Inverse folding.
């Protein structure tokens, strides 16, 4: 939001710029992220995610701030041929949402190639779950959740009847999809590590995976959540979800060596903190009325 009036107390002048503030770096988390919606509304995704990023990069340059940490995603590995996914893997996208992340990565690489003052770190998130341990901050998806853990959480608080498990015929330990779940607090710490790394003169446009390096199946995740919450999560086995990869988990070597960052929390902590948030806030930031 830009303030429209210039005053002694306002950092914003009448031109809408910030003449007295120096911005050291920007962490760009903003973006639409629902895969299914991106398939039905591709222009919305390209406009919001890509055009929004270009606008941000232009504004940053106008303010002489050329240090960026960007939230990319493991989605840019597409359906990986092998695991763990290393940062050098070939990139592909299987839906418009994934394409926006991939295109933004390419835009950042082009920008750095054009001007060596830019220092950019692209963080490829794996599957962020959990909540802040205080139980005060957590995920509150609008409408039906797309992702596994917000759905499990809604079933646990009585807002859903059963979890639909998408596919039990994968070649995995129990037939369900395997992912690299990472606690949101670890993810946040990864951003601090990336911000610190921006002062390394060797940084150009560099990529790091943020994951735990461990694969967990849907059923293992459900069992861990049942244990943490004491609630039974009824399951309904369905067919595979189109576009889902079988097994995705991160190689964490590069982040560990270069960012000096490593995830501290396991799936028990993720489920404990997610349940703490859910049980204290069964309707997220709203109320029963607001969710009707
Ligand atoms: N799953 C279910 N039932 C559900 C929801 C999910 O069985 O109701 C399964 C999926 O089939 C998958 C696993 O749970 O095996 C995880 O699914 P999510 O939707 O939680 O996460 P994805 O791995 O599909 O996607 C996540 C992010 C994307 C990102 C991608 C990168 O949500 O933004 O990781 O790989 F692009």
């Amino acid at each position: 939001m830009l303030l429209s009036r210039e005053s002694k107390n306002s950092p914003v002048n009448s031109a809408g710029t910030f003449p007295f503030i120096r911005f050291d770096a920007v962490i760009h988390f903003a973006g639409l992220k629902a895969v299914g919606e991106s398939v039905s509304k591709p222009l919305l995704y390209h406009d919001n995610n890509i055009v929004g990023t270009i606008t941000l990069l232009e504004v940053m340059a106008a303010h002489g701030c050329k240090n960026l940490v960007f939230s990319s995603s493991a989605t840019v590995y597409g359906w990986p041929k092998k695991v763990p996914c290393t940062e050098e893997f070939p990139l592909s996208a299987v839906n418009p949402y994934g394409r926006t992340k991939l295109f933004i990565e390419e835009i950042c690489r082009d920008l750095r190639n054009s001007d060596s003052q830019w220092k950019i770190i692209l963080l490829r998130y794996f599957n962020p779950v959990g909540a802040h341990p205080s139980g005060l901050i957590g995920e509150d998806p609008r409408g039906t959740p797309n992702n596994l853990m917000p759905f499990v959480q809604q079933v646990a608080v009585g807002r859903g009847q059963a979890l639909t498990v998408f596919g039990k015929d994968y070649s995995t330990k129990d037939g369900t999809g395997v992912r690299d779940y990472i606690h949101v607090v670890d993810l946040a710490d990864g951003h601090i590590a990336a911000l610190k790394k921006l002062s390394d003169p060797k940084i150009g446009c560099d990529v790091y995976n943020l994951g735990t390096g461990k694969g967990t199946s849907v059923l293992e995740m459900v069992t861990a959540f049942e244990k943490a919450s004491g609630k039974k999560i009824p399951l309904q086995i369905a067919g595979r979800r189109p576009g889902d990869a079988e097994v995705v988990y991160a190689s964490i070597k590069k982040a560990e060596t270069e960012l000096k960052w490593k995830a501290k929390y396991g799936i028990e902590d993720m489920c404990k903190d997610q349940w703490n948030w859910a049980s204290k806030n069964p309707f997220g930031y709203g109320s029963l009325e607001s969710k009707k």
User: Anything to note?
Assistant: The radius of gyration is 20 Å. The chain has eight helices and ten strands. Residues 33, 73-75, 127, 146-148, 151, 163-166, 177, 179, 218, 241, 244, 248 surround UFG (CB under 6 Å).
